[in-house]
Amino acid sequence: MNTDSEKIEELLTRSVDSIYPNKEALKEVLLSNKKISVYVGIDPTADYVHLGHSTNYLLLERLHKLGHKIIVLVGDFTAMIGDPTDKMAARVVLTKDQVVKNLATFKSQIGKILDFENKENPIEFRFNSEWLSKLTFEKIIDLASNFTVQQMLQRDMFEKRISENKPLFVHEFFYPLMQGYDSVALEVDLEIGGTDQTFNMLAGRTLVRRYLNHEKFVLTTTLLVDPITGEKMMSKSLGTGVGLNETANNMFGKIMALPDFGIIQVFIDCTRLSMVDVMEKKRRLDMGENPKNIKVELAKEIVTLYHGKEMAQKAEEDFENTFKKGGIPEDTKEVLVNKGESLSKIFLEQGIVKSKGELRRLMEEGAVKEADGGIINDFEYIINKNLTLRVGKRRFIKIKVD
Question: How far is CA 140 from the centre of its chain?
Answer without folding.
Answer: 30
